[in-house]
Amino acid sequence: MKIARILIVDDAKFTRDLMVKAVKAEYPKFEVEVAQDGRKAQGMLGRARYDLVLCDWEMPEMSGIELLTWLREEEDNRNRDVPFVMVTSLGDKEYVLEAAEHGVTDYVTKPFNNEQLSSKVTKYLVKQGIISKTELAEQLKKRDRMLGGGGTANVLTQKQGMPSGSGVHSSVSHGIHPAKRVRGKAMLLFGTEKLPVMIRELSTQEVVLMLRTDMSLPAMFQKVTVGFLAGQGDNQQRLSTKGSVIMLQALEKRLDAEVVYAGIRFTDLDDKSQKTLSRIIGLMSH
Predict the structure, then answer these.
(1) Same-domain status, 98 and 168
(2) Is residue 59 located within the same domain as residue 133?
(3) Last residue of one domain, picked from the residues 108, 134, 157
């Protein structure tokens, strides 16, 4: 396993120590550095290369969102594209979307436990090739033996986003209009991908889609477009709307899970589009 360098940014020493302990418990050989605010972290990010940043949102001098914004705009900074995980108690979707707008990679909501944090670390180091899939498999087997079996697939299949703690069955129920379990299809567009998908839940604020894992999957906070079509003839309703991915969750907690739920928060619905979407929900609910 390669040696990774991780930067932890938090103004509370107690929280910094907890995060260092969580990382070191799983990866004792990793280099873990700390900064007590965004201003100090800014200087450190300008001097050295890191493989991952774990950062609090609310800090004096320079907040986490200000640090993130600065980093993503620094074209000559070697850390410009480093995975940046926000660790914060600000779990409302508005904050999640704001962080997504500024280029955050992922989100951990306080309070967290060691497994939740180390799983995030593992996830992004695997993506960068610092931890190989063989090493990951061995690590999961070891964790499984320690825990007495079960739950090891959480590293790759745990629910991401939707920090309110709702399950999939109610994860789209926070808008003005409650979500409905519907039967219908949609088109999901991101990058060069155009994927036919099934709808699980739909409201005028959000949608949960069912994707096969053999498809190209969107990333957390990625901007996407969702196309809806319902009804026939003169009663047919069409709508295409933009949104951001705020939840990813495997249907089964297994490394070979075949279905992933993707929760998408709509970002550009005007009154006319919301009325059209309400009619689509009505047609798909019958």
Answers:
(1) no
(2) yes
(3) 157
Tokens for 18, please give them.
């907890």
Asked whether the beta carbons of 18 and 116 are under 8 A apart, the reply is no
- Phi, psi at 226, each rounded to 5°: -120, 130
Identify whether residues 123 and 178 lie together within a single domain.
no
pLDDT tens string, the chain, 286 residues long: the values are 789 999 999 998 988 998 999 999 889 999 999 999 999 999 999 999 999 999 998 888 899 999 999 999 998 999 999 999 988 876 555 667 777 788 888 888 777 778 888 888 998 998 899 988 888 877 777 665 554 444 433 433 344 444 333 344 444 433 334 556 777 889 999 988 889 999 999 988 899 999 888 778 888 888 899 999 988 888 889 999 999 888 888 776 656 668 888 999 998 888 899 999 999 998 887 6
Domain that holds residue 251: 160-285
Pairing of strands 206-212, 185-190: unpaired
Nearest Cα neighbor of 46 from 65, 74, 18 is: 74
Q: Is residue 272 domain-shared with residue 175, that is, in the same domain?
A: yes
- Of 157, 182, 210, the one marking the end of a domain is 157
Q: What are the tokens at 36?
A: 């007590």
Phi-psi region of 14 (alpha: psi -120 to 50; beta: other; left: phi over 0): alpha
pTM to 2 decimal places: 0.58
